[in-house]
Amino acid sequence: MFYRDERLALFIDGSNLYAAAKALGFDIDYKLLRQEFMQRGKLLRAFYYTALLENDDYSPIRPLVDWLHYNGFSMVTKPAKEFTDSQGRRKVKGNMDIELTVDAMEMAGHVDHIVLFSGDGDFRPLVEALQRRGCRVSVVSTIRSQPPMIADDLRRQADNFIELEELKDVIGRPPREPRMEPRERVEETAE
User: Fold this and answer.
1) pLDDT digits (tens, 9 = 90+) for 27-82
2) b/e code 160-176 from CB counts within 10 Å (16+ = b)
3) d(Cα 68, Cα 51) in Å, to the nearest integer?
4) What is the pLDDT of residue 128?
5) How many alpha carbons fall within 13 Å on the CB side of residue 187?
6) 50 near 186, Cβ under 8 Å?
7) CA of 117: how far to CAs of 48, 73, 109, 176, in Å?
8) DSSP sequence for the chain
9) CB of 163 within 8 A of CB of 21?
10) Which residues are bridge partners to 116 per DSSP?
């Protein structure tokens, strides 16, 4: 439930939203996403959080990050950390939970409604704290993938749960031709 006169802020956990949309078989058109929420209320900010591989010659996410930056999104990035796991596999991690949490708490006094695009259960205490500060919180993720991409306790804590699959016709991009898929996202793991 949205009210036309309420002040909104979007907080997008980039890798989590990407994984949820991929699990549902579609890509997100971020221009349409922004337009959709501009119609639902007074959109003050749209934050997008992601970790970047700084030492790669080409990062598949760089064009998206640049486009979002030039098209009204507040980009929050940090370098991803690369390491080798115990089986000798190259791994990358870049957790943006703290940055998103701090920004959401800072914005809480300036908005009426926060929309969190993530299913990460680590955000349940954040949602509870935002609610104590008087903000309504909607969470966008999916329970229709196998396994579901949203933690049950996060879904129950939110004032409103928005099923990502139900937004597919509104914010989805037409599917692209199949191709070899490069490593498209940084894996998030707890530090």
Assistant:
1) 999 999 999 999 999 999 999 999 887 766 667 788 899 999 999 999 999 888 87
2) ebbebbebbeebbeeee
3) 14
4) 98
5) 11
6) yes
7) 9, 14, 20, 23
8) ---TTSEEEEEEEHHHHHHHHHHHT-EE-HHHHHHHHHHHSEEEEEEEEEEE-SSSS--TTHHHHHHHHHTT-EEEEEEPEEEE-TTS-EEEE---HHHHHHHHHHHTTT-SEEEEE---GGGHHHHHHHHHTT-EEEEEE-SSSSS-SS-HHHHHHSSEEEEGGGGHHHHEEPPPPP------SPPP---
9) no
10) 11, 139
Write out residues in the chain with pLDDT < 70, as ranges: 55-58, 175-191
Q: Which amino acid is at 101?
A: T
Q: What angle do CA 93, 143, 67 make, to 5 degrees?
A: 50
State which amino acid sits at residue 18: Y
